[in-house]
C-alpha cells in the first residue's frame, strides 16, 4: 500500500501565497517523478508542476514565475510554493508520484486525495 497525503490548501486572497505539502508513505522502494496537478470545476485535471528525482522540473505555462516545486527525497515529500495567486488558480490540487514498491516492480502512478485551494478576488 502506498499513500500520498496533501496538506496546506485553503482560502487566500488574490495576490497571496500558499504552500502545499505532500507526504508519500507505505511500501515504497523508490520514487521517480513527483508533482502536482489540479482540477477546477467543469475542467479536466491538468499538470501544474513536476520534479524528477534528479531535480529537473516542468511547469505549466500559467504558473511559471509564480509557483515553485521542491522535493525532499529523503523524506519522500514534495512541496508547491504558490505566490501571486489568482482566482483562476482555484482548484483541487492533487499530489502525484511515480512509485516503485519493489526492486522488480514497474513504476506506477499514485495520487493523493486532493486539497482545495480557493483564491478570492
Determine the N-to-C terminus distance.
40 Å
Average residue pLDDT: 97
- State the helix count: 0
Helix content: under 10%
From the spread of the alpha carbons, the general shape counts as elongated
What gyration radius follows from the Cα positions, in whole Å? 14 Å
Gist?
The protein has 121 residues and is mainly β. It is built from no helices and eleven strands.
Structural write-up:
With 121 residues, the chain is mostly beta strands. The chain contains no helices and 11 strands. The strands form 2 sheets. Strands 2, 4, 5, 6, 9, 10 and 11 form a 7-stranded mixed β-sheet that branches. It is elongated.
Which descriptors apply to this entry?
121 residues, mainly beta, 11 strands
Topology, please?
Elements: E1 2-7, E2 10-13, E3 18-26, E4 30-39, E5 46-51, E6 57-59, E7 67-72, E8 77-82, E9 91-100, E10 108-111, E11 115-120
Parallel strand pairs: 2-11
Antiparallel strand pairs: 1-3, 3-8, 4-5, 4-9, 5-6, 7-8, 9-10, 9-11
Amino acid at each position: 500500500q502506498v499513500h500520498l497525503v496533501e496538506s496546506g490548501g485553503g482560502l487566500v486572497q488574490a495576490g497571496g501565497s500558499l504552500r502545499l505539502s505532500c507526504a508519500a508513505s507505505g511500501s515504497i522502494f523508490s520514487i521517480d517523478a513527483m508533482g502536482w496537478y489540479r482540477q477546477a470545476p467543469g475542467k479536466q485535471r491538468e499538470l501544474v508542476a513536476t520534479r524528477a528525482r534528479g531535480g529537473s522540473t516542468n511547469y505549466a505555462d500559467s504558473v511559471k514565475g509564480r509557483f515553485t516545486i521542491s522535493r525532499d527525497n529523503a523524506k519522500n515529500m514534495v512541496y508547491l510554493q504558490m505566490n501571486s495567486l489568482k482566482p483562476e488558480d482555484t482548484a483541487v490540487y492533487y499530489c502525484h508520484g511515480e512509485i516503485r514498491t519493489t526492486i522488480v516492480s514497474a513504476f506506477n502512478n499514485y495520487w493523493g486525495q486532493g486539497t482545495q485551494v480557493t483564491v478570492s478576488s
